[in-house]
């Protein structure tokens, strides 16, 4: 190497190091700014009912009096919407900065963090971590504080002379309490939709995947509906005592539309009842379709509270509509299925085309729709391939369930491969990928992966990812990996043959310690692999290596139909553009309606020369919702269309490389064997146990004994709820009771998607 080259490399390293420090400083600054915004929002919530804050609130309201939003409407937007909108922008910038940083995290040590320590296990709330429990306590303290301040203020300023003839003291107080409960319900509504915004930049910035955030939506929904139900019933009780029960059906133009609130409440209660755990799990389709009543709920809630109070919940609904619109744009594309493989165990694998611009992580998942089966049903599937396997495609494994959507998909796949259609004409619609924003499993020196059945899918991706990283000689990777896998039949063990370990990284055994613990619960011997009990050991090994696929069909035209780049997890620059355009669109549409509809109507005079009272409250609420939807659809839609058009121009997927050519090979015989036939199989007789379930405590104890004191082991689980509970209980036991014995912590991570 010449002296000039050496100097150039030194300068390059210096520039990279200097840039890394700058990016780290920017990221810390953004994180601090986000914490300050969250703190300010919490302070606003806490101060809003306090008497000393009323002067500040009135000052803000007065400054908005000349705007189309009005004094109170504009003030509520400033107080309740602007902090979350600013937080969203900061989150997008934070994600962009993080994507440009080359970070090498230090290995996790010491006790498990509060977020990764299961505290309460089982019950209707599921598995609750210590951090989640603290947030729940903080939420309840905030509720108690707000309601307490309102009630104390009401008692101090209660004026008996203001009572109407039909009112009593206790009915008046009951209605005031109901009003405050309804207001807190609106605060909950502002947060309710954030956890179910699958591509939410707020969740991505916090690295909270959608499958984890769903339970926050459930908790908030239960609490919100409790507030709204008490709100409605308190009013009904008060009206009944006043002999004014007919007010339930009032829809006064310039007062609260009571009947609209009744409709919204009935829609909410219907969703609430069908979302109860045992109803949801037994009648999932009923739960799914009934939950679309949220549209009725939001519209009639806007009619009930009017355009002013609707602004309390505006931001959360706006961010959800924005996310839903991006999902709609992405799902409209027809995605090509590159290969369709039917495995001997009944499970099948689909390879889908994606553009290189969409980032993929080892623990991501997608939502899949097959229009040929149903245009409305969407199902989540873990990605079983590593980002290092290829930039232009991803794979999913699907296990059919009897009588369900996956069973019909199996029939479609079987029909395609048996008829030998070439190319395959199966097409799909895809949303995603979603999931963790970072490869968090890399921070652990030791990993314990616990899977049940098809729950092995994300761990296939993790193992492939680790092998690819070791082959690329990356540093600071996990050195010990224990895979615990329980299946019902031995034929399912063939799924691990999707990991050609020696082909990916020939000397992987020298680089890290991989231990497989396979358990076949419903067989005493490998019957499914056609091995007789009296067969010699050599024949048993051969049967374990005899992992076949029934058929495989490929479609070269699939490269012309990749996933859409318009996604909530796509380009941060384009997401920012769409977000700002949608927000600008809302303002433009709202102002247009105000200046061309509302203002002329209010300025007209009646026949007697008196000015009209203005548009009805419920109409203003309707205009607010319409402005929100049109702003996102028209202005955000224009930017999304431009994003999609320019993205397709730069995809460059027309050229098929060596890896894609390999995937296009078609196998038509039943004896087709995977490419890893010559490699050593990960599952073999010595690490497979028949007729028993894994003893998690024994395996975890063995892992703990092999670690140095102070080690932190990452535990990832994917499987049925019973398995998640068992793993969580084992982690909690070692973190609490047995921690002093080994000084080793187990950090719990669930990858299961449960609704």
UniProtKB/TrEMBL annotation:
It is a multi-pass membrane protein. The keyword Oxidoreductase applies. Its main location: membrane. The keyword Oxidoreductase applies. Keywords: Membrane, Oxidoreductase, Transmembrane, Transmembrane helix. It is found in: Membrane. One of its GO terms (molecular function) is oxidoreductase activity. GO terms for cellular component: membrane. The chain crosses the membrane at residues 28-48, 69-93, 121-146, 178-196, 216-238, 259-279, 291-322, 334-353, 441-463, 573-597, 622-646. Residues 330-440 form the FAD-binding FR-type domain. It holds the Pfam family FAD_binding_8. PANTHER family: FERRIC REDUCTION OXIDASE 6-RELATED, NADPH OXIDASE. This is FAD-binding FR-type domain-containing protein.
